[in-house]
Amino acid sequence: MAVDKKLRWLITGGCGFIGTSLIKNLATEGGHYIRVLDNLSVGTREDLATVCTFTETQPDTILPPDPDQIGVQLIVGDIRDSDICFACCKGMDIIVHLAANTGVPGSVENPRLDMECNVTGTFNMLEGARLNQVKRFVFASSGAPAGECTPPIHEELPPHPVSPYGASKLAGEGYCSAYAKTFGVETVALRFSNVYGPGSTHKSSVVAKFIKQALNKETLVIYGDGTQTRDFIYIDDLVNALILSAFKEGIGGETFQIATSRETTLDEITELLLKVLGENGIEPPGVEKTSPRLGDVKRNFSDTTKAETRLGWKSQWPLKKGIEQTVLWFLSQKRLQ
User: Among candidates 301, 328, 299, which has minimal Cα distance to 197?
Assistant: First the structure.
């Protein structure tokens, strides 16, 4: 998606899957200044280098960018460090806050780390935005705050998170709402569904994990009976939602479901993956089912009516086409090894 206005962007977690996909879009268009704050716990300098040329700056030498400065700047630092967050926010027009402890299993294993990253880290970034008069703050949330409910999930559904991850994302949404209403920071919370696509090397969610396991001739493990459902969204659709959220007027303080509004069982996504892998000459791996994981919900898909009417956004990528592109990307990476 083309960006009409050239802005100064701060993208936390910018070396990760979603961050590099957004930066690739902005850098290809050109004319933007992009500052990346990442602790490199998941994404790497090498991942960032695949989508842009960048310079690296030490945290203790951060300065506001010059008015006409463009390009990409990397700062290696942690969102739990309030001083680094404050310094990185200087001179920015927009913050896209992607950095987080992601996923339900990790939050169950270490709920304190999940809280520190997702609650304290988000608070630090919002404070940086407030104190530096950053106009727009886009927050990467999730459907997890809704918890166990009868889908489709929508923005007015009372939240009842099941996992620590869902609770921490709900807290982030709450702080975004408060900073919009009390301090005038134009926050926009986007509840991402299950994102997949090219560039998802480090993701541990089902599509990326199953493709990697299949290419390594490993058995695919489904946690549960396979009838549990998710809403799978292709990365290009998600990047379009992020860009729209950076510019759309009159949406400060709002939350949007960013999904496809289509419910897919794990059995169905596994069958589709095996079909596409087979079409590309990959021998189908075995599939095994085991006990459900703690904190996982049974059904999950979203109603995106509000995103369509208020944000002007709608998912465009059919699931099969997205899976085909993702499999082809992983095969191309394997050939490079």
Answer: 328
**Concatenated DSSP letters of 203-268:** --SHHHHHHHHHHTTPPEEEESSS--EE-EEEHHHHHHHHHHHHH-TT-TTEEEEES-S--EEHHH
Query: Are the CB atoms for 162 and 297 separated by under 8 Å?
Result: yes
The residue to which tokens 């004319």 are assigned: 31
Whether this model's pTM surpasses 0.90: yes
The verdict on whether 165 is a catalytic residue reads yes
Residue range 153-208, pLDDT digits in tens: 999 999 999 999 999 999 999 999 999 999 999 999 999 999 999 999 998 889 99
Contacts of residue 235, defined as CB under 8 A and 6 or more positions apart, other chains included, come to: 17, 18, 21, 195, 196, 197, 198, 199, 200
Contact criterion met (CB below 8 Å) for 267 and 227: yes
Catalytic site residue from 165, 175, 196, 234: 165
Kindly tell me the number of DSSP H helices and DSSP E strands found in the chain: 12, 14
